[in-house]
Amino acid sequence: MKILRLSLLPILCFAAQLPLGNALLYAAETADPAEAAVIKDAAKEQARDREINASEDPSAKREVEIQKGASRWLDEPNDINLYGSARFRYRETDSDSGWSDGGSRAGVSLRYQAIPRYWLTFRYEAGFNLFTRVSDLLDPGASSGEGDNSDIFTRLLYVGLETPLLVATLGKNWSTYYKVAYFTDRFEGTGGSASGTYNAGTDGGPTGTGRADNVLQSRFYIDYLPDGWDIKPFNLNVQLQNNEPIPNTDYNYGTTAGFSAIIDTRNDFTVGIALNWADVPDDELGELASSGIDDDAVALLVGSRWLGQRWYTGLTVSRLVNQETTDENIYFDGSGVELYSQYQVNGPWWLVAGLNALVPDKGETQAGEYKVEYGIIGARYSIDGFTKMFYFNARLDNGRLADGTALGNTYTIGIRWDLGKKFNWRHY
Prior knowledge:
The chain is mainly beta.
């Protein structure tokens, strides 16, 4: 009976137009206690898979699999994964409106088991700007995740080594900092403006907080805690860069280092801390003073998230030093906060809400009246979690440019449609 009940859930879900998680919860309410526990665990797993797909990092799902243990790795086949995501939106501001690209991309990844339990990996991902781009001046942060005005550009390009306890990569990859920043970087077409991830109008590549350029990364999974502890394997991430350009200047950073640590409980509550430091050589500080830079670039981020079958909430708090810039490309020190929440109202309908706020310190006179301060409220119709959906959001803006100009509201409707195909083979 248990097998029959579970096997019928996807069919009942489709017939009633309900997400699988809702069907699982309904089944749990009508089952005997032992069967209910199995069904509730399946519902939790479905909710976790849904939230993994919210991450911009395409390797996030694989990292969760590593946390679950590597005993099955020997039997896994090699694979090539082709994937793409079409993301288009219609946006209206006080001064402009029209269709634009919302982060469309296509990519390929490869995993090859060179020797037992040691995998060679490769990924290339290209971004596309297929529509007229909306002015970033009137809508700062809305397209900050792209950081490139080319019609086709490289989002990710790296090679790596994957083992049961360590993942090492070299190239252009999502940063260790983003491991915490993505707790709140989940709004479609906006957000990510107060964490320092996409700093100084870039994709975070040179400074190393977003899609880091020419970065060497190591990600460790530590599972030595006692069995009675309700904590998943500990995730520790480190990265290094060198001689990357300081955005909007003619100078380069010295050594850049990133670090993050994340702890997940089995009740789906997560806490994390991330630190990114970029050395500004002392002999360059005099020339950089006019840009607002007076020391090294430092970004500190503390965050948490909590999820359930029908809800998710994430919060991050940042401290940024010589990291972010005003609309006039002047660096400043400041503090920020981001909040993202979602709730499943009925069937495929979800409500989303949150805020982004970043305020320069009082002594940062070069920043003028600049501030990031907006709330977001919206809804989405999810055909398949975050991978296939229609959405609407209103960005209610109370921000200002450096000269005191107030920013108007932004209204967006859009679509995200992900596709993919995986090919497997064995060589022994």
